[in-house]
Amino acid sequence: MTSDGRLLDRLSTEARLLLLAAGPPATDREIAELVRTHELDWARLLEMADHERATAIVWRRVRSHAPPTMPVDVRSSFERMAMIADFTAGYLEQRIGESMAHLNARGIRGLLLKGAALGATVYDSYADRPMGDVDLVVARAQANAAFDSLQEIGWRWDDALYPRERYVGHHHYPPLIDGRGLDVRLELHTELFVEGNPFDLRAAQLFAGAREVTIGKGRALVPSPELLLLHTCVHYTWSHMMLFGAWRAFRDVVALSNAGVDWERFLDEARRHRAESVCYWTFRLSERLAGATLPAGVMERLGRATTQRLHGVCERHAAREMFPSADRCPSQWLRRTLWEAAIQPGRAGHGGARPWILDDMAPENVHPEAREVGMLRAFRHLTRLGSWARYVGAILR
Fold it and tell me: Would the pTM of this model clear 0.85, i.e. be above it?
């Protein structure tokens, strides 16, 4: 389907263009029309694209439509940053290949997730799937050996910044930073999500149905398209609560849905893992904001997992929360309440599990003594009446 112009119209012109650039080639006409009929802050678009690590992709989508009035310095910055992004992607592919070869030689099997898996399978190259982190899953019994081995080939652990005790019991190890100077990291996982999550989607299941791919001199496993898509939906809509990562999530939905997904299998997995409402919202926003095309039958079946109560408000809220803005929701409580209204975790069988409860970096978990209550919270919000007025007007109109 084409994107929903009425929903996109609620966003800044730059956010609209960024989201359309995550979509399929069919959105080229909308991109051209937007550039032709609207005044663009090209420097702001560059800043937003860089924040999403999307500079090269966005520039490839918009450069033929850029008007002569586009500032010369911004055009030069787009071209330079796109070139750097493509170089980084090639470097990262090389690093993944040599890292896997190093682990292969030690008998350690590794399974790639997210961008690292998608760049080797559904995209033409890693340049088409920008990322800053490599997510690698290994069996728990091999995890310590893998963590130590990777540090032998230039992946550096900053134990002062990421102390080991903070990750005891976690589903991943402290991140490893590329010691050769580029802004890339490797995160070694033993499971997919934090313990206590409601999905019961385990690494062993992805290993069981994985296929092997060659990356440079190394070999890695990648999950099936159906499980990659399911993981994309859960990661964006549950782990990230639809608050960030939208651009990559929507683009991955487009790429995976065009790569030959077995939709019946996907629906079975979504139902079995209690992820139907999570998938529904990832797909709904991908369609309406980035022009993804999902089978009508898939959307109808996933939609049964939710009621239509407050869907319009939740959708408008989610669209406004995707990118940094002065007009974002001024209340953490309301943000979480609307997320629950969309996902309906009780109806989905999630029990008491919520992302913020399980996130040890949530503000109330980092500093439980600093929780605001009663009059203090009310007074703080009284000082932000202007923000409240703009936000409420935006999601209700």
Answer: yes
